[in-house]
Amino acid sequence: MRLYARHATFRRKLFTVAGATGVLGGIGYYHYTTRARVNVVSHDTDDPLIGPGLDAARPTKEPLFNLDRIPHFVAKRFETNAPPNGLLWNIASNIVMGAVGTSSKLFLKAFAPTKVFNREPFLALLDDDNRDRPIITVANHASVLDDPVIWGVIPLRMFCVDRMRWVLGAAEICYTNPISSLFFGLGQVIPTVRGYGIYQPAVDFAIEKANQNSWLHIFPEARVNQQEALLRFKWGVGRIIMESDKCPLVVPMWHTGMSEIRPLDGPPIRLFKPVTIAFGDPIDFQDTLNEWRSGNIDEETARIRITDRIFKNLRELKEKTERMMSDIQSGVKDGEGELRDTSKP
């Protein structure tokens, strides 16, 4: 009888935690998508630390968000040299990331026919026990749902605090109230203020995570772009690479279809739109860092060279992905031509 009572109590607690996670995630998702629906006309700026399109919502160059609005118990976890998170926070973080990761995987399997290219080499890089360098993935930003939905293609074992990515996310969208702040904080979204430039707490924290050989994800366009051409990349990724203790391995990613699933104008979500996700080969910037540290090039030149190389590699991956999709439609099989490691979620 006591054993049955214990099981019943455990089940009630489990359902309570799952229900709370679902409610929290639902509220966070609703707030995130409705906030991100606002369209802003883009204007160029001469500030190289900001880039085009980020000063449109502020006639002056005041930041879009004040970090003091984030509840302290969440904000303190994104401070450099902060103590490790406690057991309860890690459990809650695992629950949130596990629930969101499972939902993303189910969505790509059931509601969005998905084709993945070159995933296995990327997973091998993440799973390498001997890896002593951080990983930075960079991708185009086609919708507000890109992260976390695109991670539905990785195994569920990755959705935990020790293995899941840390992503730089817009604070003025993700961290505007206590509930969404808690949700995105547990989801390892680093609150980033557009307009603060590359010398801001979010980038400092990202560098600290890189020094712990963590996995970072960055959308270098810094905002949703549903046009054909890439926007100019921001320099934050360059600073992270240059100031990390060990040169990160940068893996470009290109995906299509997310702009159809979550367009800027239209319904919150559309189903059964095809999605394509391609992983590129890792980029090693050690040669550029060696030139900079030896004094052969200055800091700005090194940062521009790094950012420009990432831009060109991502653009080339886009073109390669388009060729591979054309080959599939023409009946080319995996292993022929450029098709390698094609798979489903």
From TrEMBL:
One of its GO terms (molecular function) is 1-acylglycerophosphocholine O-acyltransferase activity. Residues 333-345 have a biased composition (Basic and acidic residues). It catalyses: 1'-[1,2-diacyl-sn-glycero-3-phospho],3'-[1-acyl-sn-glycero-3-phospho]-glycerol + a 1,2-diacyl-sn-glycero-3-phosphocholine = a cardiolipin + a 1-acyl-sn-glycero-3-phosphocholine. It is a peripheral membrane protein. Pfam families: Acyltransferase. GO terms for biological process: cardiolipin acyl-chain remodeling; inner mitochondrial membrane organization. Keywords: Acyltransferase, Lipid metabolism, Membrane, Mitochondrion, Mitochondrion inner membrane, Mitochondrion outer membrane, Transferase, Transmembrane, Transmembrane helix. Residues 135-258 form the Phospholipid/glycerol acyltransferase domain. InterPro entries: Plipid/glycerol_acylTrfase, Tafazzin. It is found in: Mitochondrion inner membrane; Mitochondrion outer membrane. The keyword Transmembrane applies. GO terms for cellular component: mitochondrial inner membrane; mitochondrial outer membrane. The keyword Transferase applies. Its main location: mitochondrion. The chain crosses the membrane at residues 12-32. Residues 325-345 are annotated as: Disordered. Belongs to the taffazin family. This is Tafazzin family protein.
